[in-house]
Write a structure and sequence with these properties.
heterodimer; A: alpha/beta; Rossmann fold; seven-stranded parallel β-sheet; 7 strands; B: 23% helix
Chain lengths: 431, 546
């Protein structure tokens, strides 16, 4: 099964079974499929839950949780995702012959008794649920100072490398957070595939630009008439890694540096470089192609721009047969810091540069070995941390933290030891 | 869109064109044909899909259809009402007579006013709730036309449209000009109970000015007729037997029996071309090719619905008199307020799956509401076949209990719907806006006045206390968003001035242009408008100097 696009709204089939059990309905896979598709579109049809409501929506649904959340969301949180789930399940089952028979049970002559019993049951449930809600609130309030804001409603995010891996997760996270996303993919095929996967109402524009070609990114953005100052957050996530290639193979090395470093510089130049009037006066491109005053108003210019460079923890040490990947990431990190210095010296407060050095997590670039599997951090969690950290204006993010400490530890013990350790972690490939 | 002049320009001058196939257009055309004229009826004319499984009741459809979820909620579940929405129901996605906002032909710009439109043969009447009443002298107080001037037209219309209703009841003195020809629609056990309670508590309700009676409905109920209602409870979802009046099934068929009638589909009229105060040509877009063309004409009857008629008129005016301004003289719609209730006396009653889906009872709130008409129309509905989840979600208990409770009390659940009248006010209008070459969009401005808000609050309070006295528990008030009333009127109203028409519906500016639909209404009474649309169209067609 593929990962859900928007975990906050999505429920898996076990959760659906729990909802059905709670409502005393028989789960039906056909109806679950319809529900899943409906919920995949939810971030673009309904307001995003925030604060406590969102906190309550994050954990998995269990029978117990559904029982507690049902009355409290009905009374206090009408837009909560669970309300959409329960309402959707009831709607789908009432349109189905079997579901309707299960729902439409009439109590016969003792309707009055049945009504009273149901009101009593509901009251008891509420009486149990309110203390639980208090407990949840305490947990929410205690964690509040550490919880990052990642609200991007009405803002525009530019992300490279969205067709898979971390870039894709960053895009989904931004979409779920209410952003309008300009996603850069490498090929038309990748664009079509991704467009097919996204729900119809997703506010995403996918542009094709092969970052290995100098100038491609900039011309794609100019062609799409995207004003640089409309971008609230720009995440450079695209990268390539020629695994198994020697650092001496010049073509691969050049391509690696072009994609991983020079494309970043190109984009940063487009974003924060000397103002090019010809592109800034162009009207904002709206997602659906219409240019009504409403959409124009929505796309007001952003007052700050967060530039996020996705580097790697690998930038701290060398790596054999990686086509110069680690070297390019080292260059990216150092270049990013230099950019930050330049911007700050110019007194430019509009931009912040966040350098992300993630540890190991599943992507197209990591090889599945028992060793890496232990060290994997969830990619979605990494995406969430990057987004909230960048929005908070942090200079460096290194998720997971323990992996960063481990890497620095290894770096301290000297090259000889490092060589032996890394050679074992990554056996020489003869590809 | 390409613009091309038609070759046969100037050929036929006596050509009479009726624009629109809704109730107004059909009755205008039939009246003109009866007068002996040749008539062309122009229409976009989209056809609805046939209604599936005739004979099956609403809930039986779930068993018989291959994909009931798509039928009831739409392929994208667009008719699934979200928990935060105030709506109690959405229009059936399986029916396609309404035009969606994405339709390329629709040129409305909804912004605070949400217009409903239809490009189907029969127009918005395909979704008519079938309530048939006429406007009395009191309703027509602001009109330059009295009831006696309308009476013959009403009679003709009631001849063409069979109406089911009682011979006499408490409401009869307030419902001038209603001529039922069919026995009233069968009541549900809950309706019966409510009516009995009303008889007992009549004096208390009279003090509130509330009277209740059986609905007057444009439905065939005489069992000897083949198209008589079979109580399958699918009114809103399209009556497979054609028992509810629809011009597509009857009046247009009658028109087709006349040799001088020509139905021309695939045309959306944009504007008229005029010279020296006369209309000479009709500019239209071919709905298939999207080509814009023009054809000459002798006289035009606009019956495209108040919003489209208003838009056509404004575009015509703009071309002929650029200084006249892009605004219409008015824009009216009914404010619809629903009061959901549970009648305690009906708890435990058996649920009858065979019943008429729309309201079987009506109520009048009667009093002095000047400047509003003295009769406020309300429809009392006990629930039958419907998509229930929005109602379950609105109950104050958790979903599990709400579901149980809902089905336990289903026969006792009802809603009183109040239809608030409207008047022409300076702030409310439609306007044409240029939108690229050869296309002008229509925008709206609509707000309810403070004075009307007061009237609404007062009347809702009266209706609620009436319901309480009938042994009902009410819960909340659901108010429709502007434009959802679908009883649009007054965009080219009767009166004096260039943007109005005379009492016979003839434009004050263009001598051969007739406003044959609700656009000509100078005020919008509370009562259902369909019979008056037909009567107005009939009267305009009878008086037209051709």
């Amino acid at each position: 099964m593929t990962d859900p696009l928007f975990p906050l709204w999505h429920i898996d089939s076990e959760e659906y079974d729990a909802v059905c059990a709670y409502l005393r309905l028989t789960p039906q896979s056909r109806l679950y499929d319809r529900l899943s598709r409906y919920l995949a579109d939810a971030p673009f049809r309904f307001p995003r839950p925030s604060g406590f409501s969102r906190y309550l929506a994050e954990p998995r649904l269990t029978r117990f949780r559904i029982g507690r959340l049902d009355p409290v969301t009905k009374l206090f949180l009408p837009g909560h995702p669970l309300r959409h789930v329960l309402n959707g399940v009831i709607a789908l089952h009432e349109c189905d012959p079997r579901g309707y028979r299960e729902l439409a049970v009439t109590p016969g002559p003792h309707a009055g008794v049945a009504v009273l019993a149901e009101i009593l049951r509901s009251g008891l449930n509420l009486a149990v649920s309110l203390p639980w809600l208090g407990w949840q609130w305490a947990g929410f309030a205690a964690g509040a100072p550490f919880r990052a804001q990642d609200d991007l409603v009405g803002r525009r995010a530019l992300i490279t490398g969205v067709s898979r891996g971390l870039g894709r997760d960053l895009m989904l996270r931004c979409l779920e957070s209410g952003a309008e996303v300009i996603g850069i993919v490498r090929s038309r095929a990748a664009q079509e595939k991704l467009q097919g996967e996204l729900p119809a109402h997703a506010r995403a524009t996918l542009l094709v630009a092969d970052l290995a070609t100098p100038g491609a990114l900039r011309s794609a953005l100019t062609e799409a008439k995207i004003p640089a100052d409309s971008v609230a957050i720009a995440i450079l996530s695209a990268a390539i890694k020629h695994d198994g290639k020697s650092v001496l193979s010049m073509d691969e090395l050049r391509e690696t540096f072009q994609v991983n470093l020079f494309a970043a510089a190109e984009l940063a130049g487009w974003l924060c470089g000397p103002c090019d009037d010809s592109q800034n006066v162009a009207p904002a491109l709206s997602v659906d192609g219409s240019d009504t005053p409403e959409t124009m108003r929505e796309q007001r210019l952003s007052s700050t721009t967060r530039v996020v460079l996705v580097s790697s923890m690998g930038r701290w040490h060398g790596m054999h047969f990686s086509g110069g990947y680690n070297a390019s990431k080292a260059a990216l990190s150092i270049w990013g810091e230099s950019l930050d210095m330049e911007l700050r010296q110019r007194g430019n407060r509009r931009f912040t540069v966040t350098i992300v050095e993630p540890g190991i997590f599943p992507s197209g670039m990591t090889r599945k070995t028992p060793f890496t599997r232990v060290l994997f951090a969830s990619r979605q969690a990494v995406a969430a941390r990057i987004l909230s950290g960048a929005l908070a204006g942090r200079r460096a993010i290194r998720p997971p933290r323990w992996f960063a400490l481990l890497t620095w530890g290894i770096c301290l013990v000297g090259r000889d030891y490092r060589y032996r350790l890394l050679a074992r972690a990554k056996p020489r490939s003869d590809r | 869109m390409r613009f091309r002049e038609s070759k046969d320009r100037g050929e036929t001058v006596n050509r009479i064109v009726v624009v629109g196939s809704g109730v107004s257009g059909a009755h205008a055309a039939l009246t003109l044909l009866e007068r002996g004229h040749d008539v062309e009826l122009w229409d976009v004319g989209r056809e609805e899909k046939p209604f599936p499984e005739p004979g099956a009741t609403f809930h039986e459809l779930k068993d018989r259809l291959a994909d009931p979820v798509t039928y009831f909620l739409g392929a994208d579940l667009g008719a699934l009402v979200p928990p935060t929405s105030p709506e109690l129901l959405r229009y059936p996605p399986a029916r396609e007579f309404m035009t969606s906002r994405e339709d390329g032909l629709l040129n409305f710009m909804p912004d605070g006013f949400f217009p409903q439109a239809s490009l189907a043969k029969g127009g918005l009447s395909n979704g008519w709730g079938a309530n048939a009443l006429s406007f009395s002298d009191n309703d027509l107080a602001e009109w330059p036309v009295s009831f006696s001037e309308m009476e013959t037209a009403y009679k003709a219309v009631y001849d063409r449209i069979p109406v089911a209703g009682p011979d006499r009841d408490d409401l009869t003195p307030h419902l001038q000009g209603v001529y039922p020809s069919q026995p009233p629609v069968r009541l549900s056990a809950s309706d019966d109970q409510l009516l009995k309670t009303y008889e007992r508590r009549k004096s208390a309700l009279e003090k509130l000015g509330v009277k209740i009676g059986r609905a007057r409905l444009a439905v065939v109920t005489d069992p000897s007729r083949t198209d008589a209602c079979d109580y399958s409870g699918r009114c809103l979802w399209g009556c497979p037997r054609g028992s509810i009046y629809n011009p597509r099934l009857s009046t247009l068929k009658q028109c087709e029996a006349h040799p001088g009638f020509r139905y021309v589909d695939g045309r959306l009229v944009l504007a008229l071309r005029s010279r020296d105060g006369r209309i000479e040509g009709i500019r239209y877009v071919n709905s298939a090719t999207r080509e814009v063309r023009e054809e000459p004409c002798g006289a035009v009857f606009l019956a495209a619905g108040a919003l489209q008629t208003g838009a056509i008129f404004l575009r015509t005016l703009r071309a002929a008199y650029p200084d006249a301004g892009p605004h219409s003289e008015g824009l009216m719609d009914k404010t619809v307020v629903r009061i959901p209730f549970v009648s305690l006396r009906c708890l435990g009653q058996a649920y009858d799956p065979r019943s008429f889906q729309f309201n079987r009872l009506i109520a009048g709130v009667i009093g002095e509401f000047a400047p509003w008409p003295s009769y406020l129309h309300a429809e009392l509905l006990h629930l039958t076949g419907l998509i229930y989840h929005p109602l379950i979600e609105r109950m104050p208990l958790d979903s599990r209990s709400s579901t149980k409770l809902f089905f336990a009390i289903r026969p006792a659940i009802g809603a009183a719907t109040l239809f608030f009248p409207d008047r022409i006010s300076s702030g409310n209008h439609q306007m044409v806006r240029e939108h690229g070459e050869n296309s002008e969009k229509v925008a709206f401005r609509y707000r309810d006045s403070e004075d009307k808000e007061h009237f609404i609050r007062q009347s809702v309070a009266r209706m609620r206390s009436a319901l309480h006295r009938l042994g009902c528990v009410t819960r909340g008030v659901v108010r429709s968003e502007p434009g959802a009333g679908i009883h649009y009127a007054g965009t080219v109203p009767m009166g004096t001035g260039p943007k109005r028409c005379d009492a016979a519906g003839r434009s004050n500016l263009f001598s051969n242009l007739y406003i044959a639909d609700g656009a000509a209404f100078p005020s919008l009474p509370s009562k259902p408008i369909t019979m008056s649309l037909a009567a107005h169209a009939t009267r305009v067609a009878r008086l037209a100097a051709l």
